[in-house]
Structure formats: C-alpha cells, structure tokens
Amino acid sequence: MRSWSAHVLLWFCLLSLASLPSATMANGQDDQAAPSDTISGMIQQLFPKATRIEPKQQDYPVYPVYQLNELLGYAYESSDISDLPGFSGRPIRLLIGLSATGRFTGIHILEHHEPVFLHGLGPEPLYQFIGQYQGRSLTEHIVIDSHKVGDAATDGVVYFDGVSKATVSVIIINDTVLSSALKVARHKLEGFAQAAAAQPIMDKFEPLNWQQLLDRGYVGHWRLELADAERSLGTDLGSYPSLREAEPGEAFTELWYAYINAPSIGRNLLGDDGFARLQQRLKPGQQVLAVMSNGLFPHVPEDFKPGTVPGRLALQQSQLAVEMRDMDVLDRNIQLVADGIPAFDQANLFQVGGNAGFNPGADAALILNMELPRNHLMIDRAHFEVPVTLPAELFEQLTVEDATPRAPLWVGLWQDRWLSITLVSISLILLTILFTWQRFFTRFPRAVHGFRWGFLAFTVGYLGFYAQGQLSVVNIYTLLLNIYDGFNIGIFLLDPVIFILWTYTFVSLFIWGRGLFCGWLCPFGALQEMASWLAKRLGIRQRRIAEPLHRKLILIKYPLLIGLLGTAFYSLTLAEQLAEVEPFKTSITLYFYRSWPFVLYAVALLAAGMFVHKFYCRYLCPLGAGLAIIGKLRRLNMLDRVDLCGSPCQLCKRRCEINAIRNDGAIDYDECIQCLECVVILRDDEQCVDSISQRKREQRAARQSTLLATDASRHSRQTDPI
After folding, report:
1. Res 376: pLDDT
2. Cα–Cα nearest to 284, from 404, 424, 179, 202
C-alpha cells in the first residue's frame, strides 16, 4: 500500500509538470487583460492633480502623467522594470508613482504571493510598510531598521520600519521599489541621467609616495577651517561643550579620500600585500573608498560602530544617495602604509554602491553632516559638500551594458545573518557527528538523552522562533514552479537559514531518510515532543492506537500532499490557503499571535499530541509525506537490529512512541523520527534482551565450567595415593 501511494504521487507530479504550461499561459493572459480603467484609477490616486494619463510608452514602459501640459511624473508597473522574485518565488507586482523631481507619490500593490501577508499577518502590515515611501526622494538612502525609525534624516539616511516575521519579503519589496525607480529616473528624469560607466585600469601602476598621490589628485583633500565652521553654525565653537579646544593651526575638519580599487592608488596606500589581501576579500563588483580625517570634527565619531553606515558622512552621485558601509578591515594585515603618510584621528575603508551604484568615472560628492548640541534642548546643524573627482587616466570607459552588475540581493542577506549561519552550521555539524558515529555514542544513554533534549530546545527556540527556520510544504511549491520557470537559485538563497536547512535535509534523505529532519530539525515536531513530555509530567496517559488502525491512518498525509501539489499548479493562492493544514505559520512564525481559529487549530494539534505522541507528524503532515517518499532512496539502514528483535523481544516496539517498529522488529523508516532510543536499548546490556540472554548464557557456561573444575579437583584428591 505504501509503495503504491508513492508511485501514484510520483506519476501525479510528472503529469502536473506537463500540464503547467497551459495554466501558466492562462495566468499570463489574465495579467495582460487587466482593465486599463483599473490602472488609470490607481494612477489617479497616485497623482490626484492629474488631468491626463498617457498610454504606456513604447521606448520605456512608463505612463506619463500630466496636469494640463505640465509633466507631474511617471507611473509604472514594477514587473515591467524589475523581475526580482519574491519569497514565494513569484514577483511582487507594484504600481509605483514617481514625480518629476524624483519623489515617490505612492505605491499600490497589484499582485503578490507572499504567504506571511496573505494568510499570516494579513495585508495591513504590508500596506503600512509601502506607505512609508510616499514623499520620500531618490536622493535619500533608505535603510530598513525598526530600531532607528524616527531618527532625523540629516545624514541622508532614512530609516523605515520593517515588518517582524516578514524581513525577507520587505527587503525584496524595498529592493524592487528602489532599483526600478532608479532605472526609471535615469531614463526619464532630468538630472538623474547616468554618465558612461568606468572601471579602473588594473595593469596601470606606478610607485608613488603620499605627497605624489596628493599632487596628482589620486588622493583628494579638503579642509574646513575653524572660522568657516563658526560662520556656518552662526556662533562661536565654545558654545558646544562636546568639542575640545583646538590645537594651534588645527582645522575644524581635514578630510582625505581615495578610490582604493585603482591599483595606482590602492597598492600605494595599502602596500602590495595589503592590496592583495583586500582584493581577496572583495566580491566581484565591490568598490572601496578610503576616507581619513583629522581635526575637531572627524568624519566618524570616536564611538562609531565598525561595519555600519556612517552617520556624519554621506556620498551622492547624480543626485542619488550612494550607500556607504564600513568594511571593518583596517587591521594588522591591512594598513595605510604609503611613504610619508600622516597619522589620522579616524580612517575607514567604505564599501560604496548599493542600489544606486557608484561610477568612479563621474563626479560625486561627499556630504559632511554636522550636528552639535549646545545643550539638551538645542542642536545646531550644518552641511558641507566635498567634491569627489577621480583622475580620468586611471579608468577606462565602458558601455552601460558592460558595466559590472551590483551584487545579488541575497549576498547582503547572507552577510547580515552571518551569526545565524554560523550557529546553524555548527549545530548541523554536531548532529552529523552524532548520526555518523551513533553506534559509539549510544553506549552512553544519559549523554544521548541530554544532547537530544538540548538540541530539541535549540530547534524550537533558535531555529524556529528566532531564526524562522521552519520548513514547509510551501517551499516545495516554490521549488516545483521555479524548476518550470528555468530554476533560479537566487530565490532560495534569499533566506540563508531555510536554504541551509533544506540543502542539509535533502542530502540527509539519501543517507538516513526522513527521520533526521522530522525528529531533530523540525521546530513544530520538537514542540510536539515537549507537549508529550509535559503530558507525562502531568500524569496524562499516552494512548497507543491499535496497529491495524495506525497503519491506515499514516496514509492520510499522502493524499493531502497530492492535493496540495495539484492545487499549486492550478492556483498558487489557493494552494497557499490550503497549506494552513500545516500549523507551522501560526505556532512558529507568528508565535500563536493570530486570529482565534488558526490558534485553536494549532493548539488542538499540540493537545492531541499530549494523548497520541506526535499526532500531527504521524498522520497529517504533508511535508513529512514528501520527505518520506524521497527518503525511500536512502542508502543506509543505520538503526541496527538483532535476531531476537520482534521475536520474541518487543521492548523496542513498546518503547517506540511514534510506533515506527513493526511487530517483526523491522524499522519503518518512512515513519521513524530517528530518536535513537531503540539503538540506546540495543547497546544497553541491562535493557536489551539479546544482551541479557547472552550474558545469562555466559553465566551458565561459567557456572558449568566452575562445577566441572570443582568435580575434577575432588576426583583428583580422592584418587590421589597416600
């Protein structure tokens, strides 16, 4: 029966993939048939003063919007400009309004399939997030950081409030909005046009000392005198208690900058070894700007946090804010070593680029933002623009098409979550060690039990609630649809924890089967284990379902999987709704903070697990069904059995709370969660019947040998002559 179900599912998946093109074509036709009056109504909301909305232009897919003959701006559909897929694997379609001055007039959502907004948090948090763009300018650097929302945007950085539990989705939306708006601005708005791209000539180098670098303009220099600072602030510098007293001849700010990627600059400043080490750390397309300063007001304060965006300094090019982020690489191995270089109060290597990109062949400007408090109530502000012009002889011009593309979105996400990646990787290494040498470790039952409960706590607390590493059948939808669309691995790399867990789980299916994930790495599965433990402490007796009924009930999850996969090829939205059969979103993703029917369902499943061990995992989990099917291809049967297992010994079967051991003692790997309890019993001489029987046989043999030796000794004494 089990084999028949697996074959039916495999044939169904193949038929579904074959039928997918027609369904996709139908969906595409629906998208193209969207009523023009619907789009016009939305554009009118984005531009309330509009009197004329022209059709989408042929040369660039935007809708020009006019008030009489005055151009108000452009509206466009994000999917016409950027095809960045969402977390669901499908693009998030937005209608975006951009004024003629480069400000967002608003955003409307045309279509999305982000599960957390469709059936989790609801649409309201999404509307609140995109509402933050209205009135914001492309010249501002938008950063999603809920902790800094409300901070003054005097440094060119604007902080947006993110959405808890939807971090990846809002990052994708932000990238879609900004990257598409920048493309529209560069094609259609005056002042935003992009100059011809340039890249450093890598084989051009000449040894130069610090003074020669300054004389040739390879290192830029800017100085703000004390008197100029006082004129800009409108008061004497003695009014600011945070400033120390200036030394004779000292500037208020003295600043140097240099484009490190050019060998004639980078090799001279960092030395050959330092430049080589930096190049090894850089990813393709990464650009580095060195900034050094002295004076009363350096470009970063003394308490500047390495690896972050500078608050006092901003970079602009073509009226656009260019992201700057400290690389935190100036250390013993990478230092400023040019001959004659002075000592600096502050020195940093900044990675520059972001959505706006950075063109070293075009003029730019460093913006020094000054904020000085007179007291707790009054703060004086001033801004200074430092022109940035790099020597043309160090660069070669490129066409825009040949320019190096910016790093994919997932690269930044992996960098930001390095700690989670490290901890998850270490945990998987420990788990692999345990399973690889389980025959050794299971000789120490207390250690194995302690490790298991500690790991389950880590799975629930860190993998689940904190890192949001709960795998789901929705991930299978994304995989199958992505395979049809040509397979873009970038979709799966958007969430590093999910990607690592899925990759590890997929590989482990061919080695150990389903059980390693279901018994150790599934947060909701671990939560059920804890519910069962609590029930035992409360004196609730665990019910054991009769074997014939149990064998029928475990088949329920397979039709559920078939139905969900089939629905995904028909309607992804409907499939995502039906995927609520999984309680993962309610319990793990949303911490049970959801409308009461969903909470009641999740709590009911946990309550059922207090009476029937891991009730949901055994009978209802479509994800477990899919893993069990692939797990049939496993190469190893690591859980040892002996001749007495099943006949006559039934100890392991009675102890197996998930009932994955058959009456004959064989392990049902499709249902086994690899808790290793049966292996612990098998290695325990005090529990395993085979070991006990063997020990008794050895004891009887030893007694018989002792008796024979005693009899022989007596007989020898009786026959010994006097």
Report:
1. 81
2. 404
Q: Note whether 337 and 383 are within 8 A (CB).
A: no
Contact 160/119 with Cβ under 8 angstroms?
no
Helices within 437-522 (DSSP H only): 438-441, 445-458, 473-484, 489-492, 496-509, 515-516
Rg (CA), the chain: 34
Q: What is the arithmetic mean of pLDDT over 658-683?
A: 84
pLDDT of residue 25: 36
Q: What gap in Å lies between CA 446 and CA 434, rounded to an integer?
A: 14
| Across 626-655, average pLDDT | 79
Cα(689)–Cα(169) distance, integer angstroms: 55
Report the 10 Å Cβ neighbour count for 37. Answer: 8
Distance CA 266, CA 241 (A): 38
Name the burial class of residue 650, with classes exposed (0-12), middle (13-18) and buried (19+) by CB atoms within 10 angstroms of its CB.
middle
| Per-residue pLDDT reduced to its tens digit, 285-298 | 789 999 999 999 99
**d(C-alpha 115, C-alpha 119), whole Å:** 6
Residue 43 and residue 65 in contact, taking contact as beta carbons nearer than 8 Å: yes
Residue 77 CA to its chain's centroid (Å): 26
How far apart are the C-alpha atoms of 218 and 267, rounded to whole Å? 12
* Residue 479 burial class via C-beta count within 10 angstroms: exposed 0-12, middle 13-18, buried 19 and up: middle
Residues with Cβ within 8 Å of 597's Cβ and at least 6 positions away in sequence, in order, are none
Distance CA 361, CA 388 (A): 10
Taking CA atoms, 392 is separated from 190, 192, 218, 362, 550, in Å, by 25, 21, 10, 9, 77
Q: Are 293 and 344 in contact (CB under 8 A)?
A: yes
Query: Given the DSSP bridges, would you call strands 70-77 and 63-67 parallel, antiparallel or unpaired?
Result: antiparallel
Residue entry with tokens 């950081």: 145
Candidates 400, 407, 393, 299; CA nearest to 359 is 400
DSSP code per residue over 538-583: TTPPPP---HHHHHHHTTTHHHHHHHHHHHHHH-HHHHHHHGGGS-
Q: Please report the DSSP string for 109-146 in residue order.
A: EEE---HIIIIIS-SHHHHHHHGGGTT-BTTSEEEE-G
pLDDT at 676 over 80: yes
pLDDT digits (tens, 9 = 90+) for 419-478: 999 999 999 999 999 999 988 888 888 899 999 999 999 999 999 999 888 999 888 877
CA proximity to 409, closest of 722, 85, 9: 85
Cα–Cα distances in Å, from 541 out to 226, 546, 609?
81, 15, 11
**CA angle, 683 then 685 then 687, to 5°:** 90
Beta bridge partners of 351: 288, 325
User: What does pTM read for this prediction?
Assistant: 0.64
The Cα 267–Cα 260 span in angstroms is 8
Total number of residues shown for the chain: 722
Domain boundaries, the chain: 37-188, 197-398, 411-637
pLDDT in tens, 470-523: 999 888 877 877 776 666 777 788 788 999 999 999 999 999 888 899 999 999
Q: Which residue has the tokens 């009769």?
A: 546
